[in-house]
Amino acid sequence: MTDPADKRLPAPLRKLLPAELQALCAVAPCTRGELLFAQGKKPTRMLYVTAGEVVLQRMGRQGESVVLQRSRHGFIGEASLDSARYHCDALVITSGAVIAIPMDAIKRSLAADSAFASRWIAMLNHEVKRLRAQCERLSLRGVKERLLHLIETEGGEGRLPLGSGLKSMAAELGVTHEALYRAVAELEKHGRLRRRENCLVVVGGV
Amino acid sequence: MTDPADKRLPAPLRKLLPAELQALCAVAPCTRGELLFAQGKKPTRMLYVTAGEVVLQRMGRQGESVVLQRSRHGFIGEASLDSARYHCDALVITSGAVIAIPMDAIKRSLAADSAFASRWIAMLNHEVKRLRAQCERLSLRGVKERLLHLIETEGGEGRLPLGSGLKSMAAELGVTHEALYRAVAELEKHGRLRRRENCLVVVGGV
DNA sequence: CGTACTTTTGAATCGCATCAAATCTGGTGG
DNA sequence: CCACCAGATTTGATGCGATTCAAAAGTACG
User: Fold this and answer.
1) Which of A30, A64, A35 is nearest to A49 (CA)?
2) Do A107 and A174 reside in the same domain of the chain?
3) Would residue A177 count as lying in a domain?
4) Could you say which of A96, A114, A132 is where a domain stops?
5) B147 and B109 in one domain?
6) Segment B66-87 mean pLDDT
7) Which of A112, B51, B73, B158 has the fewest CB atoms within 10 Å around its CB?
């Protein structure tokens, strides 16, 4: 059904990118601790995570890191298309792989291929909605509510895969890992949540 | 210098929209308490706030409202371009005016005019960055830090205009209005902040 | 002039951050 | 294989800061 040459690219990219860009995609492994790009650097490649886990983070004035996004599958820094510099760091939390696409090739294709531009706009629209949901989540008081909101919005069917444990998730929720561990324990005790095969599962459908 | 017919449109829209869409723009007043659109409704017009203040909000399960965005000048619900339904409410907080553009006309222009599509993508990129900054802000502990972050990122030159008072701002910061009033008072007492002509001004440029 | 809203201050309570420490885990090298 | 280490997980105690509830004073607007 699918061309063997396409097998290296995940389905979302095959649907999104025109053929000439798919040919330019370069898969590369990335290892824990690696900095895919750094704040202030000039964007030259658009990156797409296919395996492992990457976080976008920015340093506060006290040197504390604030996690802006956690990605296990999808573009990172897609809004840097027309930026002169990155405004945050991309750090690999769990080793995996990324696909790199030359930024200028994307720009050329967007200008020439209006159907591609429409799909790109749809992707950005989706990202905007995801970010609004994250803002909504961070506005909730209470770790438990934030956690349940995360599972509902990001998980499918009340299931959320835990990539590299709860710790990086805690940062995304804007709470300490201790608080998150306690919240998970309490929700499990009350039977509202279960941990199964590296997933969090909400029990009472509500 | 400028054509009299263009005077009704703000500069950002004149720069963004192609002529045929500018001709379709309809300015309409909106009054406090008005619901510009409601969650679940089908988007037919793209809205741009030119005066007053509008908030995007969603109701929590306890009936408490969570503010996703506060807009005094710019598009609202721009990510609903390809959505079947709105995912939040748009409520007018301070009476003003909005510009409405037919959604299908925008879609047609985006498909036909690749330069316009590029400008639209740039606008979405900007919005994504703004939302990431908001997530970063909501991850900060302490009302004072959030407030200073807001003034730094959204205000120009350390000045942030207060549209309709601090109360709607408190919701955007994810804190109670009491906490925000106290934070402002304390920052003023320590000389780090001043209130001037309906603006918040950071004193010690950091 | 009255009504509705914002602004302001106060007191009590609660949840989370913080600091600390023990256990568990997977992976590395001897 | 075992010792060992780094990091994740878990539990405990304490304090701070925000929420919450309450109430008063200021302010805009019809």
Assistant:
1) A30
2) no
3) yes
4) A114
5) no
6) 91
7) A112
- For nucleotide D19, the protein residue with its alpha carbon nearest to C1' is B176
Please check whether strand D approaches the CB of B178 to within 7 Å. yes
**A203 pLDDT exceeds 90?**
no
> Quick check: B184 CB within 7 A of strand D?
no
Asked if B121 lies within 8 A of A121 by C-beta distance, the reply is: yes
Chain A residue whose CA is closest to B106: A118
Range of the domain at A100: 3-114
B167 CA: nearest nucleotide by C1': C6
Q: Supply the pTM of this predicted model.
A: 0.89
Note the pLDDT of residue A198: 83
Q: Do A79 and B121 touch (CB under 8 A)?
A: no
Residue written as tokens 């371009």? B81
Q: What total of structural domains would you count in chain A?
A: 2
B144 occurs within a structural domain: yes
Cβ–Cβ gap B132/A66 under 8 Å? no
Name chain A contacts of B129, Cβ cutoff 8 Å. Answer: 79, 83, 87
Residue A69 CB coordination number (10 Å): 20
Tokens coding A78: 């897609």
Best A109, A135, A137 member to test B by mutation, with max B CBs in 10 Å, is: A135
Task: Average the pLDDT over B83-88 and give the result.
Answer: 92
Task: Assess contact for A53 and A71: CB atoms under 8 A.
Answer: yes
Q: Give the C-alpha separation, A183 to B160, whole Å.
A: 37
pLDDT surpasses 60 at A3:
no
- Which pLDDT score is estimated for A62? 66
Query: Is residue B39 situated within a structural domain?
Result: yes
B194 touching A (Cβ < 8 Å) = no
Q: What is the CATH number of the domain that holds B167?
A: 1.10.10.10
Average pLDDT, chain B: 89
pLDDT of residue B145: 94
End residue of a domain, out of A78, A97, A114: A114
Q: Are A86 and A43 in contact (CB under 8 A)?
A: yes
